[in-house]
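Cross-check.
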Amino acid sequence: MIHPHTYIHPNAKLATNVKIDPFSVIHPNVEIGEGTWIGSNVTIMEGARIGKNCRIFPGAVIAAIPQDLKFEGEQTTVEIGDNTTIREFVTVNRGSKDRWTTKVGNNCLIMAYSHIAHDCIVGNNCIMSNSTQMAGHVTMGDNSILAGMCAIHQFVQIGQHAFISGGSLVSKDVPPYIKAGRTPLSYAGVNSVGLKR
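Predicted model, tokenized:
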């Protein structure tokens, strides 16, 4: 069901069984997959490609232009995989001409007030906890977890199955399967709990 108080641009492509709550805005050149639910007051901007069975909660903004002074209006995108949940007031920016896209994989949970900047690549089965801020060009491997209020410096690479504790400033790469935390960032051994899951 699409609420009558929602605005959907005629060029937007919505699959079957998409549900949109009131006061959301769907811009042109948007694709939304089957079974996705979009809450109230969500803005889906030009260039968004959203997969199947996603849930996007109130106040989120998907595919706003990158916060990059070099951006000149290129036709870039955001790609959200299937079965991903995006909670309240999350922002995911479009790519720049460096990568042309920002990607979030399948089965991810992006918790409230988090930010994913331009040209980031978030893998499958990832969790970003509340108020985590990810600068541009970051790569986050599959099955990795960022606890609450982490700040990730631009161009950092986080390996698969890594775990980063809350409130950490991540200004260097984190290898796969490693626990890391604190400021300055230090490594704290193998993420054995994550490997058992």
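The chain has one helix and 27 strands. The helical segments are 192-196. Passed to J.P. for a second look.
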